Amino acid sequence: MVGWPGAASAQLPVCAPPEPQAPYYAACLPTGRFLVASFLTSFAIDQLLRADTTPFVRRPREVLESVSTEDLLKKNAALVDYLGKLKPLEFSRLDTSTGLAAMNTAEETRSFETVIEVGDVPYKVSLKLPARIEGGYWRTPGVLQLAFWENHRATLAIEAPNGIEIDAQVECLVVSTDGIRVLTAGPSVPDLLVRFGECQ
Amino acid sequence: MSVATIHKLGVGAAVLGLLVAACGPPATQPCHRYDALSLTRENGFAAKLDWKDQRMVDAAPERIEVALTVIRPIKGPIELVHVIGDVEEDHWPLAVPDFNNIPTSLCWIAPPGTPANCGATLQSVPLSPVGYYYLRAGDNTVLEAGLSFYLCD
Q1: ipTM at complex level
Q2: Domain assignment of residue A88, yes or no
């Protein structure tokens, strides 16, 4: 199902369901549910009321700025500058619950490395982008699933201070009121999960 | 601290939570969300769920989540109906909260003894997600709905 344009027009989820027996890199954030609900509401309004003929956009830098504190932005100025150079991600509606997403990338923005500080902990992060990021999405008021077509996926690498390294293509992204799930391409790298509930 | 600041702190943390996730070794998770169906005007607010899993909704924190986009004001309950074969197995009248005129709402239908934010609970557990689902909107203008299941091992 994942990775072909027909999936998006079938009004079905475009990301593979969770695999209960598979290991995940996981974190928990109890406050996330309400915040993602607000993002999904804004997306629903654009999808249902404003996107009949023209695509709607999400600009990467504006997304980060709208969701971050000034302190966080100040500490990660290189990331803010980089995101500001990216073109907007365009969403073109197919019907109520599906659509296509695309973003062209300028050559000078296709590779980026930085150290991101969360609290006082540094994470080495690198991102590689194709000439065009492209995929299809399926959504409801409670979830946005975004599947990226093969050869049109970002590659994300994270080096955590404890030595754990992740280097994977992002195949699918699930943003829901229960959490954020990042599906990596291939079986070798576990998926990432930020849960919003049952944090004990 | 303002609501906006709380939102920013929380969402910023959500984005960076992905980095923090990389901090520990990977592990299996006790519960997962399974996104299932969208009910829209294109499918007549009705759809069939092919559920090949053996997992069922049984005990908290397991639940059905119904996400709705509805024109305000809400005019009475919106019903979700669950059909297996030709038999109506369950129907849940949802008293959708009219919160600040925000067009989207989330309703949790959970096992008995669990808080019901839209007044509906599962009367009979365990419940297999398999079957056909449709909405009875009553006097409401429903723009869309989404169904998901939160299930644990």
Answers
A1: 0.90
A2: yes
